[in-house]
Design a protein that fits this description.
Blueprint (H helix, E strand, L loop, with lengths): L20 E4 L6 E6 L2 E4 H6 L19 H5 L2 H17 L7 H4 E3 L4 E3 L7 E4 L3 H12 L15 E3 L5 E3 L4 E2 L2 E4 L8 E4 L3 E2 L2 E7 L14 H4 E8 L2 E2 H7 L13 E3 L4 E2 L7 E2 L19 E2 L2 E7 L5 E8 L7 H9 L10 E3 L14 H4 L7 E2 L5 E2 L7 E10 L2 E13 L7
Parallel strand pairs: 6-22, 8-16, 9-26
Antiparallel strand pairs: 1-2, 1-5, 2-3, 3-4, 6-7, 10-11, 12-15, 13-14, 13-22, 14-16, 14-17, 18-19, 20-21, 20-25, 23-24, 25-26
Length: 415
């Protein structure tokens, strides 16, 4: 497909994409949006001009704080709207004459958290990442815990501290035990880290007691979003036994403002790894369930110098999203529209494709050299961490925008 609108070949928001988000202009009301090239598509304006009449949408469905009510209308509606936009921007049909009424430049708007997230689950599903971390702390022979190859390991995280790209992240404080021979101490975390992840958003709810099979999972997944699970490694290391992550994680997680519909990524589906030992029947699946999506991590210093520190790919997932959702609901746990499920850190097979500072610097023993000559073992105050992602195959490009956050100093009175 080719649009009559001028779109850069390397734009994340091609004619094949049309992601969904929420925007506002100045201090105005929040409204639902899509994106094409450098333009924000005002879905409410399109609706009021009658372009979506065939979908029989509620009058003010796009004038909302979040996308939840729109997503609840179901995939026939949300995918139908994408199809209409693709047709309008390839055939024109009078859109060009009304472009100033229907769109904004991205530089003119503020983007917001796209959905209301009431529940958030984080998985641990990249074998390369799990092996790296296990090797550091338990040795190579015991890198994977006994359950890891039998089920998608996960934990329930804190939904209230998930923020949209561009929101500053305050360095957390808490208990740490840097010297195992001494009692714990209190202070600001010294080992601030990121985790490169992808998240998926639930688009179809279930009732308590209902299961979702791997065959049904894609019907319940609305779309994907970039996700950075900020981590304070020193706080985490002292607190996580025996119940897992807590204060070392819940101070903040960053998402991109755009949700890419699952169907926009069909072109990038690939087969999964052979899973050995054989999984239990409820985790078996058919077809291609992994995605070839390029991922990139960059540090931007306070002075504005940017260095790409990792290039990875979403394909480095041992457990796919369908298996994750099937496992999450096998006991009858219900899901709601807007729930967020994160992949866990995505690390590739080479040192330059690892998805955290913990791995990239191997617990600080191999500092990273940045473009400005400075070094990093872990993240410093003033550093901005940027995640980017896109699929690019056979002339089809679909991207996710950026998930960006800057670390600011801990409050002095709390340290």
């Amino acid at each position: 497909m080719t649009s009559w609108l001028d779109i850069s070949a390397d734009s994340d928001f091609s004619i094949y994409n049309f992601p969904y988000g929420v925007f506002s202009v100045a201090d105005g009301e929040r409204k639902a949006a899509s994106a094409l090239g450098d333009y924000i598509i005002d879905l409410d304006a399109f609706h009021k001009h009658g372009f979506f009449d065939s979908l029989a949408l509620p009058d003010n469905v796009f004038v909302a704080e979040t996308l939840n009510d729109f997503i609840k209308l179901g995939k026939p509606t949300t995918n139908g709207l994408r199809a209409i936009l693709q047709k309008l921007f390839t055939e024109d049909r009078g859109i060009n004459d009304k472009l100033s009424e229907l769109t904004y430049k991205m530089s003119e708007v503020e983007m917001h958290l796209p959905v209301e997230i009431k529940d958030y689950t984080d998985f641990y599903s990249s074998r390369e990442h799990a092996t790296n971390v296990g090797t550091m702390f338990r040795g190579k022979e015991n890198a994977l815990m006994p359950n890891w190859l039998h089920l998608p390991v996960g934990y329930h995280g804190r939904a209230s501290s998930i923020v949209v790209s561009g929101t500053d992240i305050k360095r957390p404080v808490g208990q740490m035990r840097p010297d195992k021979e001494q009692p714990p101490v209190f202070g600001a975390s010294r080992l601030m880290d990121f985790e490169l992840e992808m998240g998926f958003i639930i688009g179809k709810e279930t009732k308590l007691g209902q299961r979702i099979s791997t065959a049904e999972a894609e019907d319940h997944i609305f779309g994907l979003i970039l996700f950075n699970d900020w981590s304070a490694r020193d706080i985490q290391g002292w607190e996580y036994v025996p119940l897992g992550p807590f204060l070392g994680k819940n101070f903040g997680s960053t998402v991109a403002p755009w949700i890419v519909p699952l169907e926009a990524l069909d072109h990038f589906k690939i087969s999964g790894p052979e899973q050995e030992p054989k999984v239990l029947p409820y985790l078996e699946y058919q077809g291609d369930k992994r995605y070839d999506i390029n991922l990139e991590v960059a540090i931007e210093t306070a002075a504005g110098s940017e260095t790409v520190i990792s290039r990875s790919n979403f394909q480095y997932m041992y457990w796919n999203m369908c298996q994750q959702l099937a496992h999450h609901t096998i006991n009858g746990c219900n899901v709601n529209v807007g729930d967020l499920y994160a992949s866990g850190t995505i690390s590739g097979e080479t040192e330059d494709s690892y998805g955290s500072m913990l791995e990239l610097t191997w617990r600080g023993s191999k500092p990273l050299k940045l473009e400005d000559g400075s070094e990093r073992k872990f993240l410093q105050d003033g550093d901005s961490l940027i995640l980017r992602g896109f699929g690019d195959k056979e002339g089809v490009r679909v991207g996710f925008g950026e998930a960006r956050g800057k670390i600011t100093p801990a409050d002095p009175h709390t340290v």
